[in-house]
Amino acid sequence: MLVRVQNLVKRYGDVLALDHFNLEVGEGEILGLLGPNGSGKTTTINCILSLLKYDKGAIEVFGKPMAPDAYESKRNIGVVMQNVAVFQELRVEENIDYFCGMYVNDAKARRRLVDEAIEFVGLGEFRRFYPKKLSGGLLRRLNIACGIAHKPKLIFMDEPTVAVDPQSRNKILEGIRELNRQGATVVYTSHYMEEVEQLCTRIVIMDKGKTLATGTKDELKAMINDGETVTVELYALQPDHVANIRQLPHVARAEYADNRLAVHFDGGQHNLLTLLDYLKSRDLSFGRVFSEQPTLNDVFLEITGRQLRD
Amino acid sequence: MFMHIFGYRLKCLARDREMVFWTLIFPLILATMFHFAFDQLMGRQETFRPIRAAVVGSDAYRQNVAFRQALDALSRPGEGQLIELTVTDDREARRLLEDGAVSGVITVGDPIGLTVSQSGIEQSILKAILDEYAHTYATITGILEEHPTDPAGLLREIGQRRSYTQQISFSSAEPDTILNVFYVLIAMTCLYGGFLGLRNTTDVQADLSPQGARRSVAPTHKLGVVLYDLAAALTISLAEVTVLLAYLVLVLRVNFGNQVWYVLLTCLAGCIAGVSFGAFIGTFARKSEGVKTAILSASSMTMSFLAGLMIVNMKDIIARKAPFLSYINPAALIADAFYSLYVFASHRRFFLNIGLLLLISAAMCTLSFLRLRRDRYASL
Predict the structure, then answer these.
(1) Which candidate from B211, B377, B379 shows the least CB-CB separation from A87?
(2) DSSP readout, B79-117?
(3) Angle at the Cα of B342 (from B241 to B236), degrees rounded to 5?
(4) Chain A residues within an 8 Å CB radius of B4
(5) Is B199 on the interface with A (CB under 8 A)?
(6) What is the pLDDT of residues B240-293, one digit of tens each?
(7) Nearest to A51 among B13, B211, B213 (CB)
(8) pLDDT in tens, B153-196
(9) Which of B49, B178, B189, B228 has the greatest number of CB atoms lying within 10 Å of its CB?
């Protein structure tokens, strides 16, 4: 394990931010920490990085206890902060060189690493720019470059895509995958479930400082009863039809409102065909049809009774 | 590692335009304004011109030997000449007075008379001279009437003015209170170096800035980063103070004496005090950056005010009313170090000022380091 967190307790005054939190990160993973704002994701990262004091628990990184003076471990860690952490007075390439230089002494090697980082985040044409001249998305890319230029083995990324345009977001996500392909282990926090679903090989859902569920996205979705949800546009559907639909195989629930029929299945196969066959057999004309697989939000909803974005 | 962090810190601080304005441009503007404001006072040579007076050359005047000798002594050309005397007749004397050629007309009689056409300083001085003579004359006459033993000897003694104090020059320079304003201006600039120290502490603490957080997770010893940053801030501050000093000396012709190395030593000690002061405020004032900047700005200005930046004789007032303040006020210590270099031949007072400055700086630095060495924070 690259990171092992055991029974971590962190309080901010009377507020319990981490409640006996446990976490393990294996080599080569992209681990997603998913949870709503205030769930303890950033606090977890900051405790692991020895930035924050904690009340109880143990943290190991690269098999050694993590401490502010654990320089050998720190040398192999990269951090992409939630807030953009660059100096406004330094140009793009100078910022990357500055932070890279805190890890790599050799100037020649550093020059190569800086060039690679600039190319990696696609800031080649902006290397002489000052940060204030960059757009929000480009600034985030610079923030990432500053955190990963020294080629760390373990990278912590704390909400790196907040307030980023879709183009930059895709670029960033693709970059993270590439880093992982190159051998880096990534711990990725976000409250965007789509990103986590897309990116992470394993996901930890947390809320109120606790782990709610852990697994791959398929494992997490398998934890809940919901299967797919089929929505059909229908006009003037009679209640007895709704009752009949509820009797179809694997139908968990069916609701009709605002000329839309929503049917939730709890498993099974070819559910969409079964439903459409029923509608055709009753000569019920219908409009558009949508089929949705369960999301991590459904998982969160199932476990907590709340939406992930609450 | 030192050169890497130091070099980039220099770039950061030197490219911070707002910082450069307050720590360099603003003092240069103030210096120029002070120069124009005090230009006349500094440039004017206050030489005393003898007061022109006429005395009516009557018989009474010719017979009053003592008075005549007194007037001769006062109108003798040289450093001590008080009056420029014209002996003439009554009519001519009045014409001279009406034309403004003389400030007063002296008529010898009982009592001795003074005629003036207007009131003013010169007329007051003439009156004071005559009053003094009349008073002394009356006193001596009284003594002679009561003790007529050795009138000639007494008159000789009275006629001689003796000084019982000796004037000793500490250096070739004449004390000039206006100069203190420029010395305090340099002191203020040194203290404004505190803005550099303040920014350093913000950029190194994880709970104050994301840059601080990023630097805290790097495998670099925190005390090392603090010291390298401090060295960069000190370099920038010293460079700015040197530019100001060069401007004052070469352009505005402010006299700092000729002890260049001691002057530079004072600048260095002042910059150390300023940067340490900023680091101290940045570390211990648990407020927002804006509030810290306001605290630093207000306290620097207050210290400069107490050292005499706005009121020329404030330094003397503090020295008399609250002397302790002069020993703990870095601005007063810096200004007094410059002043003592300029005025005194001995370096005793200079080194006392420098020693106190360095002592205060060491105390602030130590306290700041103790606080900054904290590795983990309660919250970010």
Answers:
(1) B211
(2) TT--EEEEEE-HHHHHHHHHHTS-SEEEE-SSS-EEE-S
(3) 10
(4) 98, 101-102, 105
(5) no
(6) 999 999 999 999 988 887 788 999 999 999 999 999 999 999 988 878 888 999
(7) B213
(8) 666 666 555 555 555 555 556 666 778 889 999 999 999 999 99
(9) B189
